[in-house]
Amino acid sequence: MLEEIKALDKKYYMNTFGDRLPVVFDHGKGMKLYDDKGEVYYDFLGGIAVNAIGHAHPYFVEKVTEQIGKMVHTSSLYYIENQAKLAQKLVENTCADRAFFANSGAEANEGAMKLARIYFYKKGIDRTEIISLNHSFHGRTLATVAVTGQEHYQAPYRPNLPGVTQVEPNNFEALLEAVNDKTAAIMLEPIQGESGVHPMDKEYLEKVRALCDEKGIILIFDEVQTGMGRTGYLFASQYYGVEPDIFTSAKALGGGVPIGALCAKQFVADAFEPGDHGTTFGGNPLATAAGLAVFEIFEKENLLENTRNKGAEFMSKLNSLKAQYPDKITDVRGAGLLIGIQLKDEIAKDVFRGLFERKILTSLCGGNTIRIAPALNITSDEIDIFIAKLKEIME
Ligand SMILES: *Cc1c(COP(=O)(O)O)cnc(C)c1O
Question: Ligand 1 center to residue 193 CA distance, Å?
């Protein structure tokens, strides 16, 4: 089956993903994924921080199938019960006053940039520029590529969206220098995911917040990866205790059903008036049923608390391994269950491959860092499986 699917992919699918890892999954359960031969893999990547409630969670399956049986889509011409209720959940549990649903992280981020610009436009103030950070990742659309501070994502698609610049992360002086009277927004990931799990310093974020307050700049947190419990708090802004004016969410929000959210404080959300922004699919009855089911599972199973506890346990076990193999593991960092294990450059690929061969799914990011973002209901036994396999490879 693998060979057959691979041949179809090579012939018919655009070659955007090159040679993928040699496996075809058939189904999953919790932290486990089963391939076409029935072999078990442990999903420590969680579909890149998407499967926060694990695979085939019974309550999720029940609620989503129930919704499919009722209706999948109606359009934004009508009121949508699940959409209104999911917006309520996001608002009641965060610093936001309003939410809007898109279909992906990139699309939510596009919405965030549009909202920041229209806010000043409606006030008749000429402020359109956006400052983001080097090594960031904000998505694959033209505007989100422009704020993604990585040359190889931008180069083929220039000219970029005008008025966008990047500065070094965690360097407040650099940011201060880049800000001018045209700056509309500063956009950043509280923890940079894609480039290797690099958390911002709390002090840096506090200074950025104060700067935005002083200059009337809109602060946007891209929480597409860090949001929905990943750090042990519903959003990383709560982990840091720093409130953005706008934040976005996606990945884990629908438990794997595509959905993105744009959330904002009232003063900036008010800039969107009828006709200013929209979507066909965004927040449809199915996607928002999935989002509501995820929220309910978070509450019923105390997933935020579990994330804090298991994240601390995972981190401390990884730090012991690092102490045992200091010449191989150079850093362990992250928050909650978003963890980066930085390795000596020369061995990083082999360790990643070694984990895969031992049926442990992770991703290699930033060139030398193993990223793990497992289901938030992970158990200690599952953590120990990972530690044992990594130890085996270290030896
Ligand atoms: C994954 C990711 C995105 C892009 O999300 P898509 O759903 O792939 O468009 C944007 N920002 C961050 C921080 C991400 O991790």
Answer: 9
